[in-house]
Design goal:
With 84 residues, the chain is of the alpha+beta class. It has one domain. Helices cover 12% and strands 30% of the residues. The chain has 1 helix and 4 strands, in the order E-E-E-E-H. It has a 4-stranded antiparallel beta sheet, with no helix packed on it.
Length: 84
Amino acid sequence: MKKIISFWKNQSKNGNIYYSGKLGELDLIGFENNQKKNPKEPDIIFYLKEDKPTNKKDINEEIQNDDVFAEYGEQVEITDDMLE
């Protein structure tokens, strides 16, 4: 087995758990799927961290426009404290 990526478990100031790691030049951030209603839904959803948008509205628009997991459950609003 070949290791390709490692993630670190983090906790935001508000107590939210998230995971961060790098895959080559890509910065990734993952959030536990707390709205899971079906066991086939993913436990953690990862996002590509890009240049930090200027406000929460921009973050949510980016995620809604690029949510490859949208078919698996409800959209989770990402807040600034989750990205710290």
